[in-house]
Write a structure and sequence with these properties.
It contains four helices and six strands; from the N terminus they run E-H-E-E-H-E-E-E-H-H. By secondary structure, it is of the alpha/beta class. The protein has a single domain, classed as Collagenase (Catalytic Domain). The two termini are 25 Å apart.
């Protein structure tokens, strides 16, 4: 990435909309989803993008709650990912609802993984995300980055003034920056229109 790709004041042209469908697993606890929604909405707005959610208010409802296929430890394991995704699609299939514009499924649940968020990009589904209950407020945005053409690239830098990192930084701290080169890739995601 050229040095000109590191600008943090880039506005994505066209008023793009990032579209998510949120689900909550039965083994999710807490309220990190509220912080994730607020942070994502705010950070996208700084770059001229909007956040569109189903359910629109981002509140847990029966329609968007799913039984997670957990093991004895109460966690979702990799062999249950596809079953969980199928259960979500059975609850709400945004491809069956006009105007049939794809959305990124984000499932808040407890899963077995060494991180608090995970993007699944394998199997019969387009990439989708899971966010754990002990995540930070940037995790949902970070995982949506993995589901976009940014992919597995964390695009990190250690020379950011004030100790800030970009939203794709794989770790804690202040991940409040979105760089031009990242945003240009991100805006090409299947769930952004």
């Amino acid at each position: 990435m050229s040095s000109s790709g590191w600008e943090t004041d880039y506005i994505v042209p066209g008023g793009r909309e990032v579209r998510l469908t949120l689900f909550w697993g039965h083994n999710y606890f807490g309220a990190i989803h509220k912080d994730c929604i607020a942070t994502m909405r705010s950070m996208l707005a700084e770059h001229g993008m909007k956040l569109s959610l189903i359910p629109a208010n981002g509140e847990i409802t029966d329609q968007f709650s799913v039984q997670v296929p957990v093991k004895e430890d109460g966690l979702l394991h990799p062999d249950g990912y596809n079953e969980l995704r199928n259960r979500c699609a059975a609850k709400f299939d945004d491809q069956a609802v006009e105007p049939r514009k794809q959305r990124l499924p984000v499932i808040f649940c407890n899963f077995k993984f060494p991180a608090n968020g995970l993007t699944v990009d394998a199997g019969p589904w387009p990439a989708w995300c899971m966010v754990g209950p002990t995540s930070d407020s940037v995790t949902m945005l970070h995982e949506s980055g993995h589901a976009s053409p940014i992919g597995p690239d964390h695009l990190t830098t250690t020379s950011v003034p004030g100790g800030k990192q970009n939203f794709m930084f794989d770790g804690g701290g202040d991940r409040s920056l979105m760089h031009k080169a990242q945003l240009q890739k991100y805006a090409q995601a299947y769930f952004i229109k």
